[in-house]
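Troubleshooting: if your tokenizer reports a length mismatch, compare your output against this known-good record of 544 residues.
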Amino acid sequence: MTSTAQPSVYDYIIIGAGSAGCMLAKRLTENPSKRVLLIEAGKNDHYIWIHIPVGYLYCIDNPRADWRFKTANEQGLNGRSLLYPRGRVLGGSSSINGMIYMRGQASDYTSWVKVTGDEAWSWEHALQRYKQFEDYHGGANVWHGKGGEWTVSKQRLRWPIMDIFRQAAIEAGIPASDDFNQGDNFGVGYFDVNQRKGWRLNTVKAFLRDAAQRPNLTVLTEATVNKLLIDPVSKECLGVQYIKNGKTQSAFCNITQQGEVILSAGAIGSVQVLERSGIGAAAHLQSLGIPVIADLPGVGENLQDHLQLRMIYQVKGISTLNTKANSLFGKLMIALEYLFKRSGPMSMAPSQLGAFAYSSPDQPSANVEYHVQPLSLEKFGEDLHAFNAITASVCNIRPTSRGSVHISAADPKAPPVIAPNYLSTVEDRQVAAESLRLTRKIMESPALKPYSPDEYKPGKQYQTDAELIKAAGDIGTTIFHPVGTCKMGRADDPMAVLDSELRVRGIGHLRVVDASAMPTITSGNTAAPTMMIAQRAAELITGA
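Known-good structure output:
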């Protein structure tokens, strides 16, 4: 999907072909008079494991599809460093993520309006944008759209132990839910997923393949953007400098016709490009020998992520994927089921059953999310345990901890310094302790009693708040939702990188359109909200 000889001047240049970039490519090429360049550092998405849902296991930490970032050693995680997957392939992280369709809660968007002063970010307006690009399995209704590019499907897999956990959660006071996307997530049920007939749906299939048929779109893969080309006097973004096939090349933006450069490289990548271009905290840029174009101290700050606490319970008298997938015959049957039916374990998202709950009665709305799996393993990339077990991962969906990401050198090959700063606030540590106790309450419910659940991780020896916080640091890991590093905000907020229309402060013809724009993280998985932001950007850019 890489074009060759094309004009070097474009109306719009999009950096990053991920969840936002692919949608923008389709929306902005709808006007045939506008020339669009889409630049992606990764390769095409032809790798088979991208498209088989369970293939995320073979994409994460694989240079074919992942940047393979790591965090700094985290004090809140007892000195551990984590893998920090980000998609480096057409489709970006939509090619390697968990495929869960989640908008967040209405209150998330109320907070965005408060921070930005812009009613366009309200839940009511966001809901209309979601409906525009959605193709919902249940048809159009007050909450959902039909006929859009982004397919929302029911899962093609169920496990008896998941249904039993669901009943246990109901017994623990969490109501049943068949739709987590109506503005209040409180409930337990199966996640909706972004799949088509048992195959992963990434943003390449949903948006880019149609757009790529248009003559006004040029797609460059394996092209790493080094920096933005900015006039130091006018402070206008004139284009981009990128590296392809070992050669440094440039592409320019037709700013006389209101052209724009749109940075959609994600919460990590967009910071890297901005800082290499001289946009960021002046002291940090000067320490790396980068001339300062715009002193914006908020670039790379305000990093937020969901930390999942992976509790594992051994169970008896019922099978889980552990035993099925640990035998040659079981693996053969799993493969045959997917081959002929596109169902079963190979069709499954990383998490099947979800729940949103209150960690304590003091919370104004559901503040923790469960991702429940009929399997267990020591850590990602290792074999499943030999015994039957389930994993109940619980994460604080409104963390108050804030971290940062910054470049370590001007060289685009240098890895960034990613410091999420997990569990750095009293509030987050308290929610962690409450979450572990809530999970124990669910596992002690009558529905699960016949299966003798036994806490394998972190272990029943952790009881006091201090012990549970220590346990959270031992078992906590990212659920891959970094946001907020180029946040929107009001003009009087010195840490706001963007205005409410996603324009970089002090720089003309430049927007950031991806998860980094979120001032606060949404209450759930972040892929769909990122697409909603891209839908808003398309409206702003085209005037639609």
